[in-house]
């Protein structure tokens, strides 16, 4: 009995990870990439039905050779499993997105460039690779926001012992940073006041602690905020466009005071004569009769009601003169 064919089949089954082809591939293990320069198929020699099978077979063999190379690299065993340390990539892959166009220079940037002035401040906008446009560096809609990423790469110095969900960890770290920032604001406020907590500073601290909470505001608070907003422009809201139904708040009239510096003698003399003329004149055209009558009545000399009240106050504690029991 010839067992050669049986041994060949057993050997082939045992070493199924070794494909039946020469290893002539070009490898870039850092990018997990292999290139087969010898593979070519002539459509004239192969039927269209067999073309897909040939490509699948070549892909399977090349992928197996690539995995064999990867598993020959240095490995580390940890609780989460076995990890392979990949080398640095050598292939320069083409961009998947358009090259960002340069931002238009502002007048100041153009002037600074001509004069050689260097601005050390970071630019407010950063290019977002995911959305393909310029976005703010900080804030809720900032560019390259880590929280919006769907995959997080493990860094070399990170240890998988005590593994924690990186997305939850990222959110918790952000909350800690916000709390630390508020604590720093409070410390700066206390330091600016010389270490003493005053009433105004206590309000500032309460405002810092309550910032970020969506508390319902009363109608009075909303009106106050609206009034402040209406006067927040340079013209104090005089030339702003008013919305339909928007309430108009009257501004307080300021009291007018005479200047402390010495005026022209003629102006001062004229003002004093006007005051004297108003005092000595008999013209009652400027007199408010209703106000004068009410003032007179309130003094108790012209109203029956006020006379009665005064009479009662005068008889208080004395002998009554009304009808009594009569003489015995």
Automatic annotation (TrEMBL):
Organism's domain of life?
Eukaryota
- Region called Disordered, residue ranges: 298-328
Checking Pfam families in the record gives: RRS1
Stretches with biased composition (Basic residues): 302-328
What keywords would UniProt list here? Answer: Coiled coil, Nucleus, Ribosome biogenesis
Q: Which GO terms describe its biological process?
A: ribosome biogenesis
The subcellular localization recorded is:
Nucleus
Coiled-coil region: 41-68
Q: Which GO terms describe its cellular component?
A: nucleus
Q: Where is the signal peptide?
A: none
Q: Does the keyword Nucleus apply?
A: yes
What's this chain's function?
Involved in ribosomal large subunit assembly.
Family the entry assigns: Belongs to the RRS1 family.
Please report the name of this protein according to its UniProt entry: Ribosome biogenesis regulatory protein
